[in-house]
Write a structure and sequence with these properties.
Homodimer. Interacts with FtsZ. The chain is an alpha+beta fold. It has helices at residues 26-46, 52-84; strands at residues 7-13, 16-22. Helices cover 64% and strands 16% of the residues.
Length: 85
């Protein structure tokens, strides 16, 4: 993957601009930023008194939780497929 050229894009997350550099397409990086922004706004609506640091940490916790749940489902499906072979 390191042989691929890096792409750079600017995104807006929760009212702040960030420059992101990576091997993924700029549309992928924008999608990721959009999901983070949406999640931060969702949590902020439910907890309007949170400062930005706590909001960022809670967003990270929520996103990692979602990731772990999806990974567990994926691994369970993989096991089911292996059992059928």
């Amino acid at each position: 993957m390191s042989d691929q050229p890096k792409n750079k894009t600017t995104v807006n997350i929760y009212g702040q601009q960030f420059s992101i550099v990576g091997h993924e397409s700029t549309s992928h990086m924008r999608l990721v930023a959009s999901i983070v922004d949406d999640k931060m706004r969702e949590i902020s609506r439910k907890n309007p008194t949170l400062d930005i640091n706590k909001l960022a940490v809670l967003t990270a916790i929520n996103v990692v939780h979602d990731y772990i749940k999806l990974k567990e489902k994926y691994e369970a499906l993989e096991r089911q497929l292996q059992e059928k072979d």
